[in-house]
Amino acid sequence: MIQKDLVIVGGGPIGIACGLEAKKKGLDYLIIEKGTIVNSLFNYPSNMQFFSSSEKLEIDNIPFISKEAKPKRNEALEYYRRIVTSNELNIQLFEGVQHIEKNKEQQFVIQTNKETYCASFVIIATGFYDIANTIDVKGEDLPKVSHYYKDPHFYAMQKVAVVGASNSAVDAALECYRKGADVTMIVRGPEIGPRVKYWVKPDIENRINEGSIKAFFNSTIEEVKKEELILNTPEGETRIDNDFVLALTGYKPNFSFLEKIGIQLSEDGKFYPQYDEKTMETNIENLFLAGVICGGMDTHLWFIENSRIHAHMIMDSITGKLGV
């Protein structure tokens, strides 16, 4: 068993920020990431542009220089990778945490798919991008349905249905349309989402208004079939020809993992985890949360620019407990 002062679960931007602070404080720490560095960002669409400007994505006051005011995915990957490598952060990649529990000495035992660690403190900074919100309809398991979108070239000359009206759905619809796909949006509500990037929202609304992209509002999918979709619309049941479905209806944290290790969640359907807002410590002593996972199902509450501070808050709490 490998002994550490602190284990940080998750190697995204906030996990990296926690690692930087732990290194400054002289702690014997380890970041464990089940994928690559900033794995969620790596799995974002290839051409994605952030809503935030580059300075709001910075961690530890390390400048983030981008070609445009709002950086793109590849620039963010370069930025965070350079931070990890140039600061020689102690990080284990492609290693998944399976379970965390306290032993009789009140130390945390962290079991991964490769190793067992023991630590006095644990930070959970695992984000939310790994589990998709399903649409729960017949045919959702067909190969033509995907909850993740990467590159529009794949959908050229195909009939593509995009489910959702958030940033990810709008970006996919516009990109696929501009690469020659026949795009139809299926939106549960009456309009495009209000949080869509302000410079993109007029674009998608204009494409819908001119008929370049078809849209069914106040509508849902009833069934996915091999060559068509059956929709519930205000005009009744509607069938449309279809080759691929991009069900971009959002993602959620791994609540079962949090519950398994003993973190209390609210019972209101939002699954807010219990933590001290001043220290980020959960109901489990010496176990902390950082980043978007703090918002439960409301994954829009926390993001890089407003949760960077969690690293400082947690490290102040840990060093206070240690008396250093």
Verbal overview:
The chain is α/β, with parallel strands linked by helices. It folds into two domains: 2-131 and 251-322, FAD/NAD(P)-binding domain (3-Layer(bba) Sandwich); 134-247, FAD/NAD(P)-binding domain (3-Layer(bba) Sandwich). Helices cover 23% and strands 24% of the residues. It contains eight helices and 17 strands. It has helices spanning 13-24, 39-42, 73-86, 167-178, 201-210, 255-260, 304-307, 309-322, and strands spanning 2-9, 29-32, 91-92, 97-102, 108-112, 116-124, 131-132, 145-146, 159-163, 182-186, 214-216, 220-224, 228-233, 236-241, 244-247, 251-252, 287-289. The strands form four sheets. Strands 1, 2, 3, 4, 5, 6 and 17 form a seven-stranded mixed sheet that branches. It is elongated. It starts with a strand and ends with a helix.
